[in-house]
User: What shape does this take?
Amino acid sequence: MTPKAQSAATREIAALAPIIPVLVVEDLAHARPLAEALVAGGLPALEVTLRTPCALDAIRAMAAVPGGVVGAGTLLTPDDIRAAKDAGARFGVSPGATPRLIAASVEIGLPLLPGAATASEVMALFEQGYDMLKFFPAETAGGAPALKSIGGPIPQVAFCPTGGVTPENGPGYLALPNVICAGGSWVAPKASCVAGDWAGIEELARAAARLGPARS
Assistant: This one.
């Protein structure tokens, strides 16, 4: 799967909703009800980070939820990409990009949303065929003003900013012409998952699904 084809796929996924939940699933029992709540709230694209022992099993469980499009985040190695695809992930997200990671995504056929934080990183990935990227870490890399500046000379590339995005600053990112969606973790608070407050998470998802560009 070429980088160009990968970006076409991730652009479609990014356009499903303004926010992609970034999820750290610590208890496998939470996986399916969490996905059901988020999808019911209007956030169908879900990124499950490979940061916990049960992450791959969580992807398997979430992939069975109707209407959900489940991806794997924190992909760092070719083995991560292979395991994510085998678990049922439909896309992958990485904080950065390496030649081996890109080669694996091409070989294995998992659409990759690679991360970039500087103009040079964006240019290097665009040169290889990627025109849909993750801007990470968004807030510490300069936030919406930095992303706006990158969009000036490189308007061909679109982004999903992730890292420090909140309901308060999210509209500022979403107002940029080179932003399709943003990644956020606030829609699935750990306390709500532990308490089994799926209705509360669904309501947070509904609010996130309504986020739009900042108004002047």
Notes: The first strand starts at residue 19 and ends at 23. The first helix runs from residue 3 to 14.
